[in-house]
Amino acid sequence: MSLMSKLSAILISVSLLGFSACAEPAKAGVDADAKLVAFLKDMIGRNPNITSLEVSIVNKIPLDEPKGWDAYIIMLDGMIKAQGEERPVKQQQIYFVNGDIMTPELHNIRLKRRVNEMVSPPFESSFYSRENLIYGIPAAKHKVAIFSDPLCPFCRRYVPQALEELKAHPETFAVYYYHLPLAALHPAAVALTKAAIAAEQHGAKDVVAKLYTVQINPAESDEQKILDAFNATLGTKITKEQLHAKSVEAQFAHDQDVAMKMMVSGTPTVFFDGDKDPSKTKYKEVVGKK
After folding, report:
1. Distance between CA 151 and CA 43 in Å, rounded?
2. Which CATH architecture has domain 125-288?
3. pTM of the full predicted structure?
């Protein structure tokens, strides 16, 4: 189990405990926020594998439905014991609060959808970096942000087609792409995405679109085999040294950081003009109006 999975398991177990265990009823505003922070820090901190923990509120979003509930986006930053050593863990989590009642999950029966899927932090303007822009111009009317793993089966069906449609309208869509390899599911995706970043930094064109045609066993761990498959497909000569260049590692870390801050954990995840697009097809509505 990964560190994130371990922390998530701890969070779930804590969330099943009553929020009202924090003594007197909550007051409005700041007092209620402080009570939630104190509750989470106290209950999560009781786990012996958590050696230090900071809890802070990133955002508080009143829900239109169900009424009376607020979605809190919480940042958890601390140290966790794993495999005989302490390691840092930083993770955001959604909690829904209504008075003294707290839950990590809400479901809308009418929409047949988890409310969690409809809540996300604001997409900060700084996330739209030049390095992530793969098609269109920054001043385009609409911004589409795609988080994807090139070895995710759904991504391999969805992303190439979406990119083909989006790049045909450069004045309408600025397309930003964020590498998000799901290492636990597709270990080979990590080296593959770093190879793509390196290729982009060395001037290769249409790297992301071609990335989805690389044929490699998702479980492959041999970096040279992954590089050979990548280079053969894209006609590049990326080396292991280039794969681990500081600039490549920095861009890789940047994409992971944006994904963490936007609470993206699955792929593909799409944002349209800063809002999460569960349908992943809002851009088609714009094209259809032309």
Report:
1. 38
2. 3-Layer(aba) Sandwich (3.40)
3. 0.78
